[in-house]
Prior knowledge:
This protein is mostly helical.
Amino acid sequence: xxxxxxxxxxxxxxxDYLETPGQLLLPSRPITPAEVWREINRTSPYxxxxxxxxxxxxxxxxPRKAVLLLTTIYNGILRLGHFPLQWKYAPVIMTAQPGKPPxxx
Length: 105
C-alpha cells in the first residue's frame, strides 16, 4: 500500500502543479450567439477557406438557426475540452518575397 508523502517540498510542488491553470482555460460563461455573429462579421469574405472549404462570405450568409447551432457546438467543445482534429491543422503555402531569392535550406 502506498504511503503518503512526508516531504513538505514535494507537497508544495504538487500543490503548485495543481494550482497552475491547464492549457485550456474554460470561459467563465458560455459563448452567446451575439458573440458568434460578431466574430463572423469580423471575418474577411476574401480570405482563403480552410479544409472545410467554408469562406467568410458563406459564413456571413448563414441563417440565425445555423448561428445558434454553431454556438451550441462551440460551447460543447469548450465544455468537453475536445477540439476536432481538423481544427488543429492548416495548409501553409510559403512564397518568396518579391526581389529576394528563395531560401535553399
